[in-house]
Amino acid sequence: MNTEMDAVKFFRTIAFGAIAIGFGLLGLRNYIDGPPDPVPLRANPAAHARDPIALTDPAQRPPMTDFVYLDAENVRHQARDEWRERPVLIHFWATWCGPCLPELPGLAAVVAKEEGRLTVLPVSLDRDGIATVQKFLEDKPFKSLPVLASGPDFPIPSALPTSILVDRNGRIAWTTAGAHPWDGPDLDQALDTLTAETAAR
């Protein structure tokens, strides 16, 4: 009896040991394959922001953190230089982010429609940067969308896609995590409000 129980314990120990080794190898694989992407693979499929853009009161808006981004020629730019001219819509996305992709045509339409009134910065957080974004966008129909990638220092969002509307004072007027329908009237109304705020200064 004791011999049978000892045998069961022995094989059970081996089984648990094999499972532990398996999990250990999975963890080790991350280091063998290279470091993880700078943004956790937490695309936010459940967060589809259908509520209209509601601007935060100017007195309550937190400052937007400045960051470096790269253009299609791999030239570095400071984000703060953009919001000195006009409001800026910063959109963090990635080519591997499923919920991000249906949003791109709408953003391209915003770029074309709001030229001169709004700067759109669709900043990709892909690990390989500009090369990956260029290859992904080269055969897409939305040519007006800028090819941009994150630089070495940038605010990492907790989910993708994330959109941030920054006023001309460099403060966050609105932000959302999840896809937003850019074909509604709410963005136009928000830009009217931001323009009126600037004129009233």
Characterise the protein shown here.
With 201 residues, the protein is an alpha/beta fold. It has two domains: 1-35; 58-200, Glutaredoxin (3-Layer(aba) Sandwich). It is 34% helix and 16% strand. The chain contains five helices and seven strands, in the order H-E-E-H-E-H-E-H-E-E-E-H. The chain has helices at 2-33, 80-83, 104-113, 130-137, 186-200, and strands at 68-70, 76-78, 88-93, 119-124, 148-150, 162-166, 172-177. The protein has a seven-stranded mixed β-sheet with strand order 2-1-5-4-3-6-7. It is globular and about 45 Å long.
Gist?
The protein is α/β, with parallel strands linked by helices. The protein has helices at 2-33, 80-83, 104-113, 130-137, 186-200; strands at 68-70, 76-78, 88-93, 119-124, 148-150, 162-166, 172-177. The protein has two domains: 1-35; 58-200, 3-Layer(aba) Sandwich (Glutaredoxin), CATH 3.40.30.
Number of domains: 2
Name of the CATH superfamily of the largest domain: Glutaredoxin
CATH architecture descriptor text of the largest domain: 3-Layer(aba) Sandwich
- Overall strand count: 7
Total of helices: 5
CATH classification, class level of the largest domain:
Alpha Beta
Order of helices and strands: HEEHEHEHEEEH
Strand order, sheet with most strands: 2-1-5-4-3-6-7
Task: Assign an overall shape.
Answer: globular
Largest sheet: 7 strands, mixed
Q: SS-based structural class?
A: alpha/beta
Distance between the termini: 89 Å
Instruction: Give the C-alpha Rg.
Output: 23 Å
**Helical content band:** 25-40%
CATH fold-level assignment of the largest domain: Glutaredoxin
The overall pLDDT average reads 78
Tell me the fraction of residues in β-strands, as a range: 15-25%
